[in-house]
Design a protein that fits this description.
The chain is mostly helical and 89 residues long. The protein has four helices and no strands. The longest helix has 23 residues, at 59-81.
Amino acid sequence: MKRRQLRALSIDRQIARTIARRSSPRVEYLAKGLVRVADERLLLPIGSVYWLAACADAEPRRNDATHPLLTMAPKFRALIVFPSGQSDA
């Protein structure tokens, strides 16, 4: 399938200019840190450790620990099946 390149709309250019004017190296540094913390390859081990720690605790905490792992499961299945990050979803 041939790739097509679309021109940016004027609203897109206005948003980009506004962000560029108000951005600073400090803001970009913080944003880069947030992106790295939100990486799936970090979330799974952190969630797994939390879940293992919660297994020895009371029932409500176990339920709270299970929820994030179940919500992340489809994304991690895609990472295992499509290691390059290109899934059909």
